[in-house]
Amino acid sequence: MISWISKMAVRKRKSNGRFDLTKEGKGYSANLKMNDDTYKLRREIINIIYGAKNHVDLPRVNVRITDAHKGKKKNVLGTGSMGGIPVVWIPKTTINDPRLKQVVYHELVHAVCNKGHDPRCKLMKPTIATDGLMSDNDLNDTLKKYIRGMRK
Ligand SMILES: [Zn+2]
Fold first, then answer.
1. Cα(104) to centroid of ligand 1, in Å?
2. CA of 83 to the centre of ligand 1 (A)
């Protein structure tokens, strides 16, 4: 079983006065520098989010690719912000994981709906096993349910 973790986005003010969205520290790795390789990885996540947008209305979501996490955090497959600007962080090591799509949907619920974990929900339980994957229909229906709940 693998843990997912949600944390508030830590906002660091950069030298140009703008805020950077980062969650370094406590075993979390830094955002990767944006170069051709990182853009390519980020594109994969953005494509998953575009796919979700065919089924539900989503606001703009910031996507950050981080280096592999270390120590106790090395099994964290993704992170979603809760409150504030929606941000999804995916370590580069998750990109080739068969659970990637489900992880992105999970983090979208944190980041967009501001919802925490629910052990009774297949998508929002805090851990995922490789053999516990949801179907695409199931993923889209569950995301839809959370987005609709948000608007009540
Ligand atoms: Zn989570």
1. 10
2. 14
The CATH number assigned to the domain holding 22 equals 3.40.390
For residue 135, the enclosing domain spans 2-151
User: Residues whose CB is under 5 A from ligand 1 (ion)?
Assistant: 4, 6
Residues in the chain: 152
95 vs 6: CA distance, rounded Å: 18
Cα separation, 130 vs 140, in Å, equals 19
Q: How many CB atoms lie within 10 A of CB 49?
A: 18
Q: State the total domains in the chain.
A: 1
pLDDT digit string, tens, across residues 76-113: 899 888 877 888 999 999 999 999 999 999 999 999 99
Average pLDDT value for residue range 120-131: 88
Q: How far is the CA of 121 from the centre of ligand 1 (A)?
A: 11
Give backbone dihedrals phi and psi of 70, rounded to 5 degrees, phi first. -120, 165
pTM of this structure: 0.85
Q: How far is the CA of 79 from the centre of ligand 1 (A)?
A: 7
